[in-house]
Structure formats: C-alpha cells, structure tokens
From TrEMBL:
Protein name: CST complex subunit Ten1
InterPro entries noted in UniProt: NA-bd_OB-fold
Record-linked Gene3D superfamilies: Nucleic acid-binding proteins
Length: 135
C-alpha cells in the first residue's frame, strides 16, 4: 500500500505565524517580488507577506508565475526557522501601502500552482468560517 503524505493545513497568510516550525501548510496570495540570489519569493495578501523558498518548484514553465506582476498562486510547503543572517527588511512596499513581512518563519515550497481565477477574499472568508465552526 502506498505511503500517505501528511495533509497541508489551509490557512491565511496572516495565520502562518500561529503554526509551528515543521508544519505543512497551504496558502494563497500574490507574488510581490522574486529574489534570484536566494531563490525566494515574497508572497503577500493585503498587508502581510511571507518569504518562500521556491527552489524545489522551478521548472521550464515557472517563468509564467515568476515573471507576471502580482501573479496569484497557491503554495504548499513546510514552515522552517529563518536564517537570521539573511533576513530581509521587516516591511516592503505594495503599491500605496507597506507590507509587514513575517519574521518568525519562512516557507519551503514543495508545490507552486498559479491560480489566476481564485478569489482570495473568498478563500480567506471560507477559512475564517472553518476556524469559527471548528473552534
């Protein structure tokens, strides 16, 4: 019988710091920037951002979501301790307002899926409702 993998917990970017290091999570947002020297993206949702290592997810067709401005993606990955010697600034600009970058964890992506049709507001609202029901 094939081995079953651990489930990824669907969550909002703003809830990522509540999960412990090693947790497998699924998040959605827009790519604000890509740092080719560290192979990381900054994924944002509103005023919250998280650094995500995408080195395991780069392929010939990755240019579609890497080069598109504010490409909308869904990502599954594991949370890890950040390398303090390589920490980015605590804020970044997203148009007219600042984005607060989560400093407590970074995400190591195992799957990046472009989802241009996803309504992130509805995604967040459904996760809010799930949290309300299950708590």
């Amino acid at each position: 019988m094939p081995q079953q993998t651990d489930p990824a917990y669907a969550t909002r970017l703003s809830s990522v710091p509540e999960y412990s290091v090693g947790s497998k999570v699924r998040v959605a947002g827009r790519i604000l920037s890509y740092d080719s020297s560290n192979v990381t993206i900054l994924l944002v949702d509103g005023r919250i951002g998280i650094r995500i290592n995408v080195s395991l997810c780069l392929a010939d067709d990755s240019h579609a979501w890497l080069s598109s401005k504010l490409a909308q993606v869904m990502i599954i990955g594991h949370l890890e301790q950040p390398d303090v010697s390589n920490m980015p600034p605590r804020t970044a600009k997203n148009g007219l307002f600042d984005v607060t970058i989560v400093q407590s964890v970074v995400m190591n992506a195992i799957l990046v899926n472009p989802v241009p049709e996803l309504d992130i507001g509805l995604w967040n609202a459904s996760l809010d409702e799930m949290e309300r029901v299950y708590q």
